[in-house]
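User: For a reading group we're discussing how well predicted structures match intuition. Take Serine hydrolase domain-containing protein. Before you show the prediction, I'll give you the sequence so everyone sees exactly what went in.
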Amino acid sequence: MSIDREVAPEQAGFDKRRLARLDAHFARYVEDGRLAGWQLAIARDGRVVHSSVHGHRDAEAGLPVEPDTLWRLYSMTKPVTSVAAMMLWEEGRFELTDPIAEWLPEFRDMRVYDKGSANAPYTVPAAEPIRVWHLLTHTSGLTYGFLQTSVVDALYRKAGYDLTMKPGADLAEACRDFAALPLLFQPGTAWGYGVSTDVLGRLVEVVAGVPLPEFVRTRILEPLGMRDTSWSVPRDEQRLAALYVPGPGGRRLRYDLLGDNAFEEPKAPAGGGGLISTAADYQRFMTMLLNRGAIDGGERLLAPRTVGFMTRNHLPGGADLDTLQTGGFAETTFEGIGFGLGFAVVRDPVPARVFSSPGTFYWGGAASTAFWVDPVERLTVGFYTQLVPSSTYPIRPQLRQLIYSAMTD
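Assistant: Thanks. Here is the predicted 3D structure of Serine hydrolase domain-containing protein, as structure tokens, for the group to look at:
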């Protein structure tokens, strides 16, 4: 499937001139040097209404963004791993309430940080075990070293886990390392972004009896026709966009130190952030979710009720992220936003002052990529660029503002 305009905007309830305004707005991000380039795809009922590219996938080499450009998805990998886990759940291989220590015994008898420094942390026993649903909802107490907002984050960095996995560690070793560190909070009592989905990927491996990349490839990517999606690409693959960070004066700087990791097959394939893909491939994944588990009348990955269950708010007490979040994370707004099994879920768009339909589910990646699925409007949106960190500019709220204001029906 290519990202082509498959239906005229007017036939799908869009104003063509307002869509052009959207492109012009984000073109300014390239013209003033903030972004090297980007790609956008908007679809309704699985038919592409608008697709556009702008700028360069590699500014230094003068290579433009093209429809088949490859992008590092980073945390947009998390929904894929979550789908993998729920496919096993549908087979009765585990319950969402099961302690993960039944398959990953290193997570038995966990400790929780209480006070003290990174050199002398004081911990207390976990009041309950980490359960499968805790991993899917980021309520496990696991964290990320790169957040740099807590003593536990510092302990992760001290153990070798910062922006990437510890060099030389496979996924099994990484999980043993995570289990040896204290949790940031008692499981099920708060929301904290972290390595939960990486641990979920390891759970998939153990339960399924095959490596995570093999399970994802054979059970998700191949059935959906996602032929350009993988955990690494050859070094001579020129379709891959370069990675950038903000520089002085708001102009970007190339970041090959991290970006070149895409050329190496990972020893620890990160279920929380490892995939590389194209806009066309991820469109197929979003369309599957919009269609509640199937695409193109072909093989069904999940049952409709499973997708519906995944995209409800699973936070304890029905709370929103603003109530339960632990800070240090800006991938999404917090007010009126819940979290399901692998996705943020809009409960009420009004508190965040950014329009979307209640029930919209979404996520984004560390390099400023973003997607959402709006079941009410039958809308899917994917935006792709390569600037780390994702919170540098208000790209995501501006996307919603401009896209919904281009709808006329």
